Amino acid sequence: MPALVLIGAQWGDEGKGKATDQLGGAVDYVVKFNGGNNAGHTVVVGGETYALHLLPSGILSPGCTPVIANGVVVDLGVLFHEIEGLEARGVDTSRLVLSSDAHVIASYNRQLDKVTERFLGSRKIGTTGRGIGPTYADKMNRVGVRVQDLFDEKILRQKVEGALEVKNQVLVKVYNRRAIAVDEVVEELLGYVDRVRPMMADTALLLNQALDQGKTVLLEGGQATLLDVDHGTYPFVTSSSATAGGACTGSGIGPTRVDKVIAVIKAYTTRVGEGPFPTELLDEDGERLRAHGHEYGTTTGRPRRCGWYDAVIARYAARVNGVTDFVLTKLDVLTGWEKIPVCVAYEVDGVRYDEMPMTQTAFHHAKPVYEMFDGWTEDITGARRFEELPKNAQLYIRALEEMSGAPFSSVGIGPDREQTLELRPLLP
Ligand code: IMP
Questions:
Q1: Do residues 294 and 329 touch, judged by C-beta distance below 8 A?
Q2: Is 38 touching ligand 1 by the criterion CB < 6 Å?
Q3: Residue ranges of the alpha helices (H) in 24-131?
Q4: Per the CB 3.0–4.6 Å rule, which of 100, 202, 227, 333 could disulfide with 292?
Q5: Are 299 and 53 in contact (CB under 8 A)?
Q6: Residue 328 and residue 20 in contact, taking contact as beta carbons nearer than 8 Å
Q7: What is the per-residue DSSP string for 164-188?
Q8: pLDDT in the model for residue 424
Q9: 259 C-alpha to ligand 1 centroid (Å)
């Protein structure tokens, strides 16, 4: 059976958690392959709401093995806090597996993330402040601490000493903060050893063996296409590979084993943090989308910036990820608008762009070219088949599908499991 990749098509918060949950029973392994606790999925199961930041949403599906793979950066304090929270609500977390190669977010990287942002002032990225960027920087600089290092105290101490030698200079001399003691960091990390030991594994081996045995593996991306460090709106991106290619490097599964790339896309667009956003609405419509869509960050609680659906972004996501299926979410939020604009192209300095402009400068100046669609006023949250939707909602969906570069497999019309209309089967 297959390896499926599930990623976000826009700037995150498209509802990936629900899509994963939708595949739930059919999936044997759910793998988080990038990012860390900067993510936030809200999953509603049986009327219970779960907000997860670090744990893969598969943790909520009995029979499914959740995996935190090598491409993830792990804040161990947050990991065990989430585990305890779920255990207290009766969720069994004992199947969780953690890659020995995953990098650990040390306290100094959390601190550096926050002080750097403060220092940047108006040039800030608007990060989640969880230490994600500095930890990936350490990984690339080859001074990172990995999960396996916790099991070799000498190496761990050496690595922390090496990292702090430079970082303390920066903290003290540039940012005017106190220096961090090596012992403090080492002791904190060693404190997790006994709890990490039973869950640590060679997850790349485990997952390839699972595929050999015909199991279904779902590779779930954190963040989304336009937050990808290579393909996103750099520098206003996260520091990991959130696109389909990242699913391979972040898990150790080769591209030839991937059968489907499913991209989750909202019926409108949102973004948290700084950076360009052509269809952003700074008016009443934007506020209405935020209120109807409950668009507040799961991780930081920040109000999300809201705007209309952008088909240029959808086509771009289809292209850079090789999307086989789109899962459209939150259509119900658009109920009640008389006319719904959809961005079909951009205009930059008088020139029309049907595809994503080549440079960030052009993207910053992009003005949306809108096509108007008729809205609907009927409550659609009770529909159970596509045909039960108002005609205009059906036309809206089909028009988006036509211009987005890949077929739509399902449409979300509310937060609950049942509020999903299947257009064609998601599993091969
Ligand atoms: P970082 O990932 O904390 O370094 O933040 C970098 C950028 O990615 C910021 O604009 C964040 O708001 C954004 N970001 C990170 N994780 C998510 C997410 O899960 N959803 C939406 N935006 C995110």
A1: no
A2: yes
A3: 76-88, 107-120
A4: 333
A5: yes
A6: no
A7: HHHHHHIIIIIT--PPPPHHHHHHH
A8: 93
A9: 28
